[in-house]
Amino acid sequence: MAPKEKSQKSMFLETSNENLDCHPFPHLLIRNFIQGDSFTENLQRELLDLNFHEKSNDLYKFNQSDDLKKRKEPHITGLRAALFGLFRSWLGEVLGVELEPIVDVSCAKYQYTDVLLCHDDELEGRRVAFILYLVPPWESSDGGTLDLFSTDDHFQPHSVVKSLVPSWNTLILFEVSPISFHQVAEVLSEDKCRLSLSGWFHGPSLERPPRHIEPPLPRSPHLPRDETLLLEWLNPLYLDVDYQSQVQQEFEDSSEIQLKNFLKEEKFKEVSEALRLTDVQWTKQGPPNRRCYEVASLESFPQCVSACWELLCSEAFFLLLSNFTGLRLHYLSPSDEDEEEEKDQEDEEEGEATGSSGDTPSANKNNKGVLLVCVCTLPKKKPSTPVCVGELRRWAHGDYTLLHDGDASKAEYALDLLLPLSCPDWQTEFGGFTSYIANEEDEELLMVYPEENSLALVYRDKETLKFVKHINHRSSTLPIGDSCRRAVYDFSFVYYE
Asked: Looking at 152-303, which runs of residues are DSSP E strands?
């Protein structure tokens, strides 16, 4: 927020109630903004009498009022007139820009576990953001601070470098820019309400540099492992041919399924305990306007965890997933064309003795009931190598993923796999679930909750996006024995047709 002239800057800081700081981006704090306690208290009462609507998506969870530009209550009307009248004119002079007389203001209530995650406020026409706090005595331990982020060389948020604690009748202003990344930290107090008025003064937007484009995660080819790995790791129920057919029918009806008790119990316990007890190397993933969780280094996997990873990357597992879903995730899996050819051939041979079709894929059981796909001739064109992208993730209080402007343009047809670990008795209210939504729509299509040893499969098209909901403070208070929960884990894979 660069003042136009030195004299204007001194006016900007003429009282001890004002504090201008340019780190990590220009912002101004004005204490005792409204003169007269009675006006402020009456304003608070009018605001609390408004109708509030719960707002919740990937980025936030809080309660918000309707737009206040047409409210008739006397104190709301008086503040609105002052903000967008004389104060707007003064602020425009300080900035050296013409601010428009657009009224953009609403009221927000943040209570226990409410949060607004990292974002920059940039939207066409927004020039200066403001927040007026009307809160009870507030401490940093109550949460709800306004956190300001530093940025890296790509103008992406890096870390919180300043936290502003809300206080009664305090106004905070900051210039909306490509680096104005901030968040409202989760409210941790169970009995205080963080009440605020907020909005934007509109004017010419600052020039934005080209948006940074993240490189895609590298895709890994399948590992040449046979069905022996499946026999060693999986619940025998899921190796039964007839049960696989039932799974496929259910999956084709809804494009998603959860397969409970997927791994053998002793294998699942071995992996879970190894993750809790072994010194695995974890790396925090960012930037915070996109994601916040930890990923394990493949080189630091304990032996049993590495073996489970091999299972999920194996050729046999690709084929098994094809049997579960009907998707052609491996070139040996039957395609729609193969099925049509086989049906045509069966029609031609109707009435004759049945037998192997000879040159088309066919499903057979081995002596242990595993469904194998056999092909007696090579494909007509060189097959592409089956690929997937996988992560072993660790989640804790405060972690999340966010949707991003560029996600829709990069969306592909894909099969998502989640295998959670160390999450017994996980509650819906903790967050941490994976939410699927249609592009440019708020309504959730599906929510997948962490469930011990339950393999979740979800097929998404190019119009479907996903995020992991912020894990809130309630999750850290769930006792396990004599301690509190610190982390949950999951294998997260994406397989491509």
From this structure: 157-164, 170-175, 182-184, 194-202, 220-221, 256-259, 282-285, 291-296
